[in-house]
Amino acid sequence: MNRYGLDIWGDENFIIDKNGEVCINNKTKPSILSIVRQIRLQGIKGPLLLRFPHLLKKQIDKLYSHFHSAKEEFKYKGKFHAVFPLKVNQYPELLTNLVEIGKPYGYGLEAGSKAELLLAMAYNSLGSPITINGFKDEELINVAFIASQMGHNVTITIEGLSELLDIINTAKKSPEVIPNIGIRIKLHSAGIGIWAKSGGIDSKFGLTSTELLKAVSILKRENLIEHFTMIHFHIGSQITDINPVKKALREAGNIYAELRKMGANNLKSINLGGGLAIEYSQHKNTLYRNYSLGEYANDVTFLLKSIANQKKEPEPDIFVESGRYICASHGVLVAPVLELFSQEYTEKRLLLKDKNPPLIAELYDLYKSINPKNALEYLHDGIDHMESLLTLFDLGYIDLQDRSNTEILVHLIIKKAVKLLSSENYNALLDIKERVQERYLVNFSIFQSLPDFWGIKQNFPVMPLNHLDKLPTRSASLWDITCDSDGEIDFDMENPLFLHDVNLLEEDYFLGFFLVGAYQEVLGMKHNLFTHPTEATIELDKNGYKISNLLEAQSISDIFEDMDYDINEIKHTLKTRISNSSFINEDKKVNIMQEISTHLNDNSYLKTVYSKGKEQ
Ligand SMILES: *Cc1c(COP(=O)(O)O)cnc(C)c1O
Asked: Measured between alpha carbons, how far is 556 from 344 in angstroms, rounded to an integer?
């Protein structure tokens, strides 16, 4: 059985039941497919983004409980706090659930822009921390002051000295409530991986030690030093190796102690930013991280304790801003397979002539006489013959009908060989995987739903939602429905994906893409005007599950409006053109206009369903 690496990336969130379906490992353990069918009954046919709040809760609970245990173990005296960085996912269905789940812990929010700050001010539980990072202007700082006046517990982290001057000016204008001030430090130890630019001495953000000294003296001069409470660093996202984290902590811990000795008496927190990695890999040989949350929490607490004790300073409060770790698992994308590339090649389409070129006659013989013993050999011969026949076509020796017969015969041979080998000699089949690839056309957009695959080749676990009790026989490449050649997940020998040979006329076949809850939704782009897919929140209870917040993908007219088209003008022009057309019968015009208006109100994903009778 192929488990698609579920034991590596799944964190026990999903199981495969005895019918070979992927089920949610919680409460009554419903299958994902049953939920998908339920939603599709309402006429929704495109890709679906399912949100599972219980997985969000699981991650938040884990974060706090691991740090709590580490604190107990090392008798750590500082406090632990966490905030959710909004840039990772600002969608309302995620945010409102997350705030609710985090309330008992005092889980706060991190904002990296004015827009995110305004969201935080509206949704954060009063009293839970808000941290503000990123580049700031005076306006943003002013809004941060307003947030404090509203009763929020705000820390503005400055990225450069000029921001400090803006804070000083604003504090003079509204001295009633002054937010906490944090300073982002530039570390000489950098992160690793694709996001390393966030840390390190030449990083975009933070103050060098020289600038830090200057900042402290300015804060003292302006009598604001008691508001300076936090130092902050963030060495990158998805930190795959624990060592850079430890290095950064040693550096930051010593900076903390030194600053206190220089008179920063109220400095009491170290904010480690995000970076906590999750495991995306489906294969043991390509793991994405070498540590667990438990190890991370222990290392952080232990190191900070040792430094504080050594330098005789109080053990600092620890802040983390993990985003990916918190919300990646809560999002599962389900996309229907629309087509298998070879499904067109049926025996019915074969139009052999009375007299065929000899190689085609041979192909036909191979097809008819292939059996379990000769399958591999015949398969190789078939593929060789095809290559020769395509050359003959280029040279003008065979015609288009011959070429079509060649394609059909070779695909029939591959199909038959794959079937024979899968029961007789599966390992031989795995050996020839590259040569017998099948292309699966999937109703989704990689640009919209897996932008990190497109941008930085981040792999996401993918598996079919059923048939997991059967061996998958086809090495698969996945094609999305954009007309961009980058909209493809190639078959990758390092990270091979095998799928089932299904007949879509008889049944649906859905792929699940997992761990897509962090960054993908907000980085997704409307390439070809495919928008954020239809989403739903799934809450499990003892009777099964409840589907709530079913939000259909944005309609075409909404997209047009987002792009600042005048939708009335578009409607009017289409109407006029239909009405003026001499090709359309007068009595049909009204219906056609209605049809167009239905399309405008619908989303642009494909509605294709072959197995109509089987939808239930
Ligand atoms: C992006 C970012 C985070 C979140 O990082 P993850 O790797 O998703 O945990 C946290 N803090 C800051 C300052 C960030 O820029």
From this structure: 31
Distance CA 320, CA 252 (A): 14
Residue 176 phi/psi, 5-degree rounding, is -60, -55
Which pTM does this prediction carry?
A: 0.94
Residues 6 or more apart in contact with residue 557 via CB below 8 angstroms: 567, 570, 600, 601
Chain CA centroid to CA 20, Å: 25
Q: What's the CA dihedral at 41, 43, 48, 53 to 10 degrees? A: -50
- Using alpha carbons, select from 516, 504, 501 the residue that is nearest to residue 444: 516
| Band of residue 200 on the pLDDT scale cut at 50, 70, 90 | low
pLDDT tens by residue, 341-381: 988 899 999 999 999 999 999 999 999 999 999 999 999 99
Cα–Cα dist 49/138, whole Å: 38
Ligand 1 atom closest to Cα of residue 198: 15
Atom 12 of ligand 1, nearest CA residue: 273
- Indicate whether residue 133 lines ligand 1 (CB < 6 A): yes
Alpha-helical regions (H) of 322-397: 324-327, 358-369, 375-394
Query: Ligand 1 centroid vs 110 CA: distance in angstroms?
Result: 9
Q: b/e map of 430-462 (b: 16 or more CB within 10 Å)?
A: eebbeebbbbbbbbbbbbbbbbbbbeeebbbbb
Torsion of CA 344, 349, 353, 359, to 10 degrees: 30
Nearest Cα residue to atom 5 of ligand 1:
274
Whole-angstrom distance, CA of residue 383 vs CA of residue 293: 49
Instruction: Write down the number of H helices and E strands in the chain.
Output: 21, 20
In short, whether 274's Cβ falls inside 6 Å of ligand 1 is yes
Query: Using one digit for the tens of pLDDT, what is the confidence trace for 497-531?
Result: 999 999 999 999 999 999 999 999 999 999 999 99
Rounded distance, CA 231 to CA 255, Å?
9
247 lines ligand 1 (CB under 6 A): no
Alpha-carbon span 567 to 191, nearest angstrom = 47
At residue 50, the 3 state secondary structure works out as: strand
H-helix or E-strand spanning residue 334: strand 331-340
Nearest atom, ligand 1, residue 326 CA: 9
Calpha distance 337→311 (Å, rounded): 61
Phi, psi values for residue 522, rounded to 5°: -85, -20
Compute the distance from residue 108 Cα to the ligand 1 centre, in Å.
14
Q: Ligand 1 centre and the CA of 193: distance in Å?
A: 14
3-state secondary structure of 450: coil
What is the distance between the alpha carbons of residues 230 and 268, in angstroms, rounded to a whole number? 6
Closest ligand 1 atom number to CA of residue 88: 8
